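Look over both lines before class:
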Amino acid sequence: MEINKTTLGIAAGVAGTLFLGYCIYFDKKRRSDPDYKKKIRDRRRRQRKNGNGGGRSEMPNLNDHEAIERYFLQEIQLGESLIATGDFERGVEHLANAIIVCGQPTRLLQILQSSLPAQVFAMLIHKMQEHGSRAAAAEETKQRIVAASASSGGTSSLALGGGPLDELE
C-alpha cells in the first residue's frame, strides 16, 4: 500500500481531532471535580506564600559585571516569556528588575516601548515608579538612622563596633 499526501493529510486530521477531543474531555472532567476550585485557590495561596516577594529575583553582586550581565539576560528572558504566556504582572516584575541593573535604562525603555503592548508598558512604568519610591523610602530611612546615630554622639549600637559611622566623626 502506497501512502500519498491525501492519506497522510486525512491521518493527521483524524489524529488532531482525536487529540483535541481528548483535551476537551479531560478539561471537562477536571472542571467537574467538586474540589477543583478549592485546589486552584490552595495552589495560588501556596504560590503567593512561596514566591520570593512577588517574583523578585535575587540581585547580583553589583561589582561583578558578568553576574550583572547574566542576571540582566535572565530577567529579560523570563519577563518576555511570562508576558508571552499572558502572565503580565510577573513578566513586568522581571523586566523591571532588568531595567534596574541595566547600564542604559533609557535606551532599554525605548526598545521595550516599541516592542510591548501599550497597557503592558504602562504597567512597567508603574512598577518602575514603585521601585523608585521604595528605594527613596529605604534611602530616607538609612539617612534617619545615620542622623539619629550622629545626634546621640555616635554611641548607638550601629556605631559601637568601630564601623563606618565612627570614621565620619
